[in-house]
């Protein structure tokens, strides 16, 4: 059956506490079962610290808008980590198109604000010099 | 043994957080402002007393205050770098309350304050302008020239070990 456009944007990965990949559907990133996810990207390396203390890990942790650059592919993903009894589920949601649009809008808004503040600074400097 | 430490950069938009990371990790700088949406994560290894430390640097999007930052981004942090722009009072006028927030919610985690764009200092406007107690021990950096960038990251790495 053909996957829906939404399911083409989600990858599910299951790992154990040591970062070993137990299952992956490889929708976005090609991963090897048995490989270690902590070595894939610094984002996942940081999970090491979080999952090791599993007694205190919240049941669900959401990391929105993470820029991933893996195997020369760039994604902007929302990442959810779910704690199950003996393993962790990592869900990668590829929202690159949405976030690229947000970036363009924010870029323009911030650029104008920076210009305004930079003018203020220059005027202050001029005043001080006069 | 290689130890990994998560360092999160905080501060308003446009203060140069991404530029500091680019200067430190890629030894590059661009005048062009490119907004950070969400988080960019980069890694660089530094050697402290013969020990390799992998700094995993979380460059998070600029916010007017730390409370607005996603809590999950701060999870598992080993150090914070609070960056302001020396030329924009808007970026440091609430710095005391921002630092109080860090001390209150992450009291065992080391942090440092960084006044970036120090290349804009002149004879009449210099580090001495920042004479409030909160700025004591701040770093004044320039991602543009590279001044003090390496020192700041190396010293914060050192703090994560103590």
Describe this structure as you would to a colleague.
Chain A is α+β, with helices and mostly antiparallel strands and 130 residues long. Chain A has 2 helices and 5 strands; from the N terminus they run ββαβββα. Chain A has a 5-stranded antiparallel sheet, covered by helices on one side. Chain A starts with 9 loop residues before the first strand and ends with a helix. The model of chain A has no long low-confidence stretch (mean pLDDT 90). Helix content of chain B is 23%, strand content 27%. Chain B has 4 helices and 6 strands. The interface between A and B is medium-sized, with 31 and 31 residues.
Mean pLDDT of chain B: 94
Main structural class of chain A: alpha+beta
Q: Number of helix segments of chain B?
A: 4
**Class based on secondary structure composition and strand pairing of chain B:** alpha/beta
Judging from the principal axes of the Cα atoms, what is the shape of chain A? elongated
Offer a quick outline of the entry:
The complex is a heterodimer of chains A (about 130) and B (about 160). Chain A is an alpha+beta fold.
């Amino acid at each position: 059956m053909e996957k829906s456009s939404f399911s083409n944007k989600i990858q599910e990965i299951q790992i154990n506490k040591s970062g070993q990949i137990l299952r992956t559907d490889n929708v976005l990133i090609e991963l090897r079962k048995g490989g270690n996810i902590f070595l894939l990207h610094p984002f996942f390396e940081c999970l090491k610290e979080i999952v090791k203390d599993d007694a205190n890990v919240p049941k669900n942790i959401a990391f929105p808008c993470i820029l991933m650059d893996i195997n020369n592919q760039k994604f902007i993903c929302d990442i959810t980590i779910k704690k199950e009894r003996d393993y962790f589920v990592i869900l990668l949601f590829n929202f690159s198109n949405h976030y690229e649009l947000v970036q363009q809008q924010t870029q323009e808004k911030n650029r104008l604000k920076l210009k305004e503040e930079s003018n203020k600074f220059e005027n202050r400097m001029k005043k001080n010099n006069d | 043994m290689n130890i990994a430490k998560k360092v999160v950069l905080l501060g308003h938009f446009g203060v140069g957080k991404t530029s500091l990371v680019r200067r430190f990790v890629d030894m590059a700088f661009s005048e062009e402002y490119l907004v950070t949406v969400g988080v960019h994560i980069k890694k660089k290894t530094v050697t402290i007393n013969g020990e390799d430390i992998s700094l995993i640097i979380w460059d998070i999007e600029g916010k007017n205050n730390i409370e607005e930052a996603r809590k999950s981004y701060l999870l598992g942090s080993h150090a914070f770098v609070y960056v302001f722009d020396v030329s924009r009072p808007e970026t440091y006028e609430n710095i005391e309350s921002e630092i109080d927030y860090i001390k209150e919610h992450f009291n065992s985690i080391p942090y440092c304050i960084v006044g970036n764009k120090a290349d804009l200092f002149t004879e009449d406007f210099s580090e001495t302008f920042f004479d409030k107690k909160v700025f004591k021990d701040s770093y004044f950096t320039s991602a543009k020239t590279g001044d003090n960038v390496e020192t700041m990251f190396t010293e914060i790495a050192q703090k994560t070990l103590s």
